[in-house]
């Protein structure tokens, strides 16, 4: 079972997500939090695998809650819930360690697929949000040196754990780099990222 913690200050929305997600026989909702502070209190005792995190909440923001939860539980996958108005916040959340993002009007099956993908260590991203963020921020593909190293190893077929060992970084850090890479490339998975790397000569092979 995939253990999920829901974090949103709107009770009706949390209840709706809970009812939706529990229709999947491999997902268990272990708790709900109305804000960042409560999420922080619940995270350790509930030990979720995936946290669905609202960004705009009174008190502690979803960005700060994401950062602090991952300090305590670095293996948790945080997926942020956002709207088209929150592009800058999404980027900040990714920098804080979130591995993906969904729009709040995501279809039910899309939400379930995203939870499963996050539990597998993948980076679920709503393609509409990705396009909007890239377009409105006029983001060019300017990968950092470390991101280029990670992408090169992805193109060579290495798993996250192998990449971490090769570069001397944690698997969580690898996931964070991949989330940033996916966002910049406008792709949703490592296969598409690897294809981009191969087209642009980032294979690490002559």
Topology:
Elements: E1 2-7, H1 11-21, E2 27-33, H2 36-46, E3 50-54, H3 62-72, E4 77-82, H4 87-96, E5 100-103, H5 108-119, H6 127-137, H7 145-155, H8 160-167, H9 171-185, H10 190-199
Parallel strand pairs: 1-2, 1-3, 3-4, 4-5
Helix pairs in contact: 2-3, 3-4, 7-9, 7-10, 8-9
Please tell me about this protein's structure.
The protein has a 5-stranded parallel sheet with strand order 2-1-3-4-5, sandwiched between helices. The mean pLDDT is 86. It contains 10 helices and 5 strands. The chain is globular and about 50 Å long. It folds into 2 domains: 125 residues, Response regulator (Rossmann fold, 3-Layer(aba) Sandwich), CATH 3.40.50; 55 residues, Winged helix-like DNA-binding domain superfamily/Winged helix DNA-binding domain (Arc Repressor Mutant, subunit A). α1 links the parallel β1 and β2. α7 crosses α10 and α8 packs across α9. It is an alpha/beta fold and 206 residues long.
Radius of gyration, taken over Cα atoms and rounded to an integer in Å? 17 Å
How many helical stretches? 10
Percentage of residues in strands: 5-15%
Oligomer designation: single chain
Largest sheet: 5 strands, parallel
The share of residues in helices is: 40-55%
CATH architecture classification name of the largest domain: 3-Layer(aba) Sandwich
Would you tell me the structural class of the helices and strands? alpha/beta
Shape: globular
Counting DSSP E segments of at least 2 residues, the number of strands comes to: 5
């Amino acid at each position: 079972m995939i253990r999920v913690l829901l974090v949103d200050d709107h009770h009706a929305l949390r209840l709706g997500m809970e009812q939706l997600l529990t229709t999947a026989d491999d997902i268990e909702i272990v708790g709900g939090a109305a804000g960042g502070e409560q999420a922080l209190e619940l995270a350790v005792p509930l030990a979720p695998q995936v946290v669905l995190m609202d960004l705009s909440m009174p008190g502690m923001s979803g960005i700060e809650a994401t950062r602090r939860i991952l300090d305590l539980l670095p293996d948790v996958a945080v997926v942020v819930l956002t709207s088209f108005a929150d592009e800058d916040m999404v980027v900040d959340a990714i920098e804080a360690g979130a591995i993906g993002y969904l729009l709040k009007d995501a279809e039910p099956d899309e939400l379930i697929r995203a939870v499963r993908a996050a539990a597998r260590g993948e980076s679920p991203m709503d393609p509409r949000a990705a396009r909007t963020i890239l377009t409105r921020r006029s983001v060019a593909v300017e990968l950092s040196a470390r991101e280029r190293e990670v992408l090169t190893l992805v193109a060579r077929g290495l798993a996250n754990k192998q990449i971490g060992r090769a570069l001397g970084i944690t698997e969580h850090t690898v996931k964070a780099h991949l989330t940033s890479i996916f966002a910049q490339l406008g792709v949703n998975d490592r296969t598409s990222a690897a294809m981009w790397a191969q087209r642009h000569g980032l294979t690490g092979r002559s």
